[in-house]
Amino acid sequence: MLPLFPFGFCAPYEPGETYWRGHQERKLRLLTHWRDGLERQLAGLNAAINTLEEQMRRPAPGAGGPGGTADWVETRRDAPQ
């Protein structure tokens, strides 16, 4: 779990070089955590875009093609005859 203030706003407890190295490592962990989250969101967006493009390549509902609304209406059991 990341601390509330990940960049170390309090006074350093270690000597200069040691503190700086720890600060850089914490910063790197935080930035990679953010990047991983953004990559997951981007993967979801790409999947949604691909799905929508695939759906747009199919025949329009009601056009009489397979899976269209016209086929569904004709085969309903409760449709008035």
Description:
The chain is mainly alpha-helical. It has one domain (16-78). The protein is built from two helices and no strands. It has helices at 16-57, 69-75. The N and C termini lie far apart (64 Å). The mean pLDDT is 79.
Tell me the layout of helices and strands.
Elements: H1 16-57, H2 69-75
In a nutshell, what does this entry contain?
Helix content is 60%, strand content 0%. It contains 2 helices and no strands.
Key features?
single chain; 81 residues; 60% helix; 0% strand
Helical run tally: 2
Averaged pLDDT, please? 79
What share of residues is helical? 55-70%
Main sheet attributes: strand count, strand direction, barrel closure: none
As a whole number of angstroms, the C-alpha radius of gyration is 28 Å
Number of domains: 1
Along the chain, the helix and strand elements come as: HH
Strand content: under 5%
The geometry reads as rod-shaped
The number of E-state strands comes to: 0
**End-to-end Cα distance:** 64 Å
- Based on secondary structure, the structural category is mainly alpha
